[in-house]
UniProtKB/TrEMBL annotation:
The name this protein goes by in its record: Probable lipopolysaccharide assembly protein A
Compartments where located: Cell inner membrane
Keywords attached to this entry: Cell inner membrane, Cell membrane, Membrane, Transmembrane, Transmembrane helix
GO cellular component term of the entry, any: plasma membrane
Keyword Metal-binding carried by entry: no
GO biological process: lipopolysaccharide metabolic process
UniProt source species: Shewanella fodinae
InterPro entries (UniProt xref): LapA, LapA_dom
Membrane topology label: Single-pass membrane protein
Residue ranges of domain Lipopolysaccharide assembly protein A in the record: 32-91
Amino acid sequence: MRRFMESNVKSFIATIVLALLFVLALVFGSRNEQMVTISYFVAQGEYRLPMVLAVVFLAGFLVSWIIAFFYIIRLKLSLKSARKKLMSLTATQQEHDA
């Protein structure tokens, strides 16, 4: 129960920090209404700085979230496998002791 509460507090703090960074990016962007040129491989376009900042921030967040999600899933599957092995070893040990 305590571990669950600690993870919830950590998630809440991380969410608050993320929200503050996003608000900071929006404030910074709203103070800089200039146009920026983005060059792609075959084209280029002009966009307002706040839009570029918001898109880049969101893209970075999504990429890091996806990587973290797969890492967490891999760890959970590994833990599940280890628990199954432990249960079978415990059952074997109990049969051996009896």
